Amino acid sequence: MKYDYWKNGIVAKRQVAGAFAANMQYENDKLSQIQYDKGAQSLNHFKYEYDLNDNVMSRNENNYVTNFSYAPLGQVKTSSEFNERYTYDGCYNRLTRARLQVK
Question: Is the whole-model pTM more than 0.85?
Answer without folding.
Answer: no
